[in-house]
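Task: complex structure prediction.
Instruction: return structure tokens for all chains below.
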Amino acid sequence: MLDFTFKNTTDVRFGNDHIDAELHDVLSHYGQNVLLVYGGHSIKKSGLYERVLNLISDLNVTELAGIEPNPKIDSIRQGQKLAKDSQVDVILAVGGGSVIDAAKVIGSAAFYDGDPWELVVDSAKRYEIDQLPVVDILTLSATGSEMNFGAVISNPDIPLKKGTGGPNSPAVSFLDPTLTYTVPARQTAAGASDIFSHLCEQYFDNNASNDISRNMIEGLMRTVIYWAPIAVKEPENYDARANLMWVATMALNGIVGLGTINSWTVHPLEHELSAHYDITHGIGLAILTPRWMEFALNTNTKPLFARFARAVWDQYGYDDMELAENSIRRTHDWLKSLNHEMTLPDVGITDDSKFEEMAKAAVVDGKLSTDAYVPVTEKDAIRIYKDSMEEFNK
Amino acid sequence: MLDFTFKNTTDVRFGNDHIDAELHDVLSHYGQNVLLVYGGHSIKKSGLYERVLNLISDLNVTELAGIEPNPKIDSIRQGQKLAKDSQVDVILAVGGGSVIDAAKVIGSAAFYDGDPWELVVDSAKRYEIDQLPVVDILTLSATGSEMNFGAVISNPDIPLKKGTGGPNSPAVSFLDPTLTYTVPARQTAAGASDIFSHLCEQYFDNNASNDISRNMIEGLMRTVIYWAPIAVKEPENYDARANLMWVATMALNGIVGLGTINSWTVHPLEHELSAHYDITHGIGLAILTPRWMEFALNTNTKPLFARFARAVWDQYGYDDMELAENSIRRTHDWLKSLNHEMTLPDVGITDDSKFEEMAKAAVVDGKLSTDAYVPVTEKDAIRIYKDSMEEFNK
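Output:
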């Protein structure tokens, strides 16, 4: 197990009894000027928007609507201006990971005089400046942004989708599973694929002695594998929504990756897809993951894939290679059972003209040729993208 | 899953590179006056005492030595006086859970004018007053005190061993697995039994829908089951000591019990043993656990014991009752493989004269007859104590 430090001060309020009783006090603790950040129509349609405004009607609320999936740097620029103009004390993010990610970077940009894209490109700058506290009301189980330090921002002009770290995780996160009842099946599935991918990225790691992390991750994988299909089929099943919401948070609040090398592969590959084609992140991950697993399985990695088969997919037997291959097939079939789209053409990517450029960028951004669990060269990355054009038939 | 709130701000520094580089700055951040709290000779023998003093030679260090296992209220009284007299800014606890527990309560007592036993009996009082920050250097993997809000203090005059909660978990915890290399086999084993019991207490819970907690706990159980025997046999095996240290923390930092009813049974029963006979807590738990499991297994609880058998003990089959019984036998045999003492007479408790009094106190203190996973009456508690007099032969 590698040395690590861990400190995460996010105050989690889980369940459906907290928002009405606590939101106002939580926000006014930081001040009277609130920047309300959210996405599109879904929170208006569900009634959450009105409910929140009623709860904080005596505070000064400035609104920034229109945060997109794969949140764009222009939204951050707008937020920066609003936060400064309105002397905002606290940001209230109502939405999924994109909205919370945007809120985090706006929180830093409020104390920065330059263009906020500079903060995304060079995270170190964010540690030198202050950050507005972020309070969030989560409406989608997926990214884990509600209890971590990360944010992913896209700049369509380059195009580049880039991860960035900051000094603070959200101050307070309201996790109410009932707020995800209205999430459509496709988004629920994409969120589940994202959660599963976060767990895979931390599980397939070259630090072999970190057994406790793997044991915890296996438990979290079993959780998402079991409950995601239920949540897709029964959107108002509280237990399914609750287990899915908390596993999303636990999958990426830092804990299960402690003491590992934690060098990710599939996310950098997917970020290129989202940057160039603006596809749904979780769907991109679902498409790439089984192809990456096929690429990564070899004599050295066979034992870990076999362990994955036994502990996560309930496969039994003595032939590790057979188990490993089974685990990949099971992974694919489970993802497919959630998402209808399981190839790149399914999401509208029908030609391979950008694969070389994407592969080059992914390898550089993810340090894939040197640091990955199984090193990925540009050629390997192109192969994974090309494999994703066809039906998976292993 | 039940509603919950969670916030834990402990700053964990895990590994063997942190203390020399960071201890001084961590302490002096809080001030110059340090109360150093520790146990007996072990940290002097290991050289840790001298190493620590050298690192903080420019700070004003007041010492409180002699914190016992099952820490006594008299130590807290001494600490209270020293903390006040020396205007202490921060407490440095060097030792295992007993030392950290004592430091936490001393941290509150420093701001209290009455007898600190009042703070133990009525935890609410501790939330009304301030608490000195506690920094700890952990030397035993067991209690989880290094990342939680609890403390257990004994008052031999009553006699009573009582758990108490406070407003703050340790500010900074240094977890260096190499510092546990010198822990004798028996203490390593007792610590492992304590960890395993913490996991059982949270696993066997009447909130049936909290699948994610159970999945995480199963992973943590597998970790302690695998690594504890290795640590006992190979005291300087870093991976064993590291996995054991982190599983101890994860077993009781609050996370895996979130959303559960979390009403414990074996600990209240054991606290009576330690209060009356001052036996090693972990050994008492190891003796009681299989007998409690035998008591708790019935038609209603059979499915959970069968799940425990499959997920933790790798038992296969279709007969849930057979699996459940196997899991109890496996639990006993694993505990026995760690500890030589597996009956009460083994630890010097040879007559049952106090069992009635102990049973009565345990049932009241643990609300066992109403809140436990399987309700325990006084009569049941006596039966569990009596069963613990004999060899376990199920």
